[in-house]
Amino acid sequence: MATPPSLSIAVLLFPDHQNLDAVGTMDYLNSHSQAYLANFPTVQHLVPKAPILTWYFVSDTLDPITATSGPKQLPTHTYATCPPVDCILVPGIDPFLPLSEGCTEFLKKDPKVILLTVCTGSLVIAQTGVLDGHNVASNKWALKLMVDAGKLNKAVHWVGDARWVRDGRVWSAAGVTAGIDLAAEFARSYFDLEVVEFVKVISEEVVNPDRPDPYAYVLEGVDLGAGK
Amino acid sequence: MATPPSLSIAVLLFPDHQNLDAVGTMDYLNSHSQAYLANFPTVQHLVPKAPILTWYFVSDTLDPITATSGPKQLPTHTYATCPPVDCILVPGIDPFLPLSEGCTEFLKKDPKVILLTVCTGSLVIAQTGVLDGHNVASNKWALKLMVDAGKLNKAVHWVGDARWVRDGRVWSAAGVTAGIDLAAEFARSYFDLEVVEFVKVISEEVVNPDRPDPYAYVLEGVDLGAGK
Fold first, then answer.
1. CA distance A52 to chain B (A)
2. Do A69 and B55 touch (CB under 8 A)?
């Protein structure tokens, strides 16, 4: 990746997706971008060190979609028309819902793309096999629900005691608000640390580590298969 | 307020508003609603205890707006057409920008409306006088910038050492991510506590208290006027 990195990121706009899953992660990452920092006259020295982020908003069609809350949102691309990207950000929906064929193909097209999942986003895309063999976090309450229903894909190594997990190209957060902590870790890994520190201050983010995870108790005694 | 409470909330969709300011607060509150919890078959006993939340998305016109990140969003009402509401949620924009006349009138129309501000939202609406005499939090980095520029409305009692503040009808959060903690405190104050606890678990929210505020240092030695 170039320094400063240039990243294109597709945000999957599922109907009824959890709005904060997408926006917590997306907006926190975006606050590190050159385009965002250009609006702050007193820190112009940070702009050349900041990443260039290009966002695409992708859905099955270009029809307006509604998330769990908020106004209707307009996709910019369909799964068929979205250009190749470096990263895909997957917010959560009801994990029992099937993925569309277009979305499945989009997720499987490039085996090197960086996947960022938040909350049940990982449970949903686990249907496609793209997470098989990876250590992955998810919403703990939903993980338990999937185990109870006998619907969990146990080829994924589900991690029940972490707020976020990175395993190769797969970056996964636990429930909803953990997506911001995932974004903070992603930023620490890829972006200039002076930029990262400034964004933490202006966002007044209280960064949570991956462990200890205060919600690990939800999965105590639950059989996640190969997970740990 | 009835039990379970029924609340109508207008979210101000300023062009270029910080997306996470609005969505952190809005989506976290919305996860307590009857409409949201109705999607969780195993906790149907919580639905009758949950609040009924009605959301309006309000801007100067009905033209699509873009926030700091994310796709275009479609307002449902203009300031002129929005029905009376119980609460107004104000995300942050550049605090040096003037508010439109329509927005100013909307904010001043009902002196009993509950105001929720996040980040620079409080600095922006302080122009109208609606916060005068109240204890109010804001983005600390931006507060310092306003002081340095001699532009701070010192009729407001700015609070420099709290992550969020409630003073009567005014609920204010400090920078961006503090809006989720403000929503959590609002929920604890108005909603059924069993519902509040469930939402905390499914959102895996690590709730931050108002004090000690890890970013209070940003305003040490800065003259906020009557604030504390």
1. 13
2. yes
With a cut of 50, list the residues of chain A below it in pLDDT.
Answer: 228
Give the CATH architecture of domain B6-214. Answer: 3-Layer(aba) Sandwich (3.40)
**B2 to chain A, closest Cα gap in Å:** 23
Report d(CA A222, CA A159) in Å as an integer: 11
Whole-complex ipTM: 0.97
Interval B157-171: pLDDT, tens: 999 999 999 999 999
Q: What percent of chain B has pLDDT over 70?
A: 98
pLDDT tens figures, A61-91: 999 999 999 999 999 999 999 999 999 999 9
Query: In degrees to the nearest 10, what's the CA dihedral of A52, A56, A57, A63?
Result: 140
Pick among 3.40.50.880, 3.40.50.300, 3.40.1650.10, 3.40.50.150: CATH of A6-213: 3.40.50.880
Query: What pLDDT does residue B227 have?
Result: 53
Note whether B214 contacts A206, CB cutoff 8 Å.
yes
Q: Pick from A201, A205, A214: which is nearest to B218 by CB? A: A201
Hey, where are the domains in chain A?
6-213
Q: Which residue of B has its CA nearest to A30?
A: B69
Residue that has been written with the tokens 């606890």 in this structure: B197
Q: Choose, out of B54, B200, B203, the residue to mutate when testing the contact with A (most A CBs < 10 Å).
A: B203
Q: Which tens digit of pLDDT belongs to each residue from B171-208?
A: 999 999 999 999 999 999 999 999 999 999 999 999 99
Within 8 A of A39 by CB-CB distance, chain B residues are: 94
Distance from CA of B31 to the nearest CA of A (A): 8
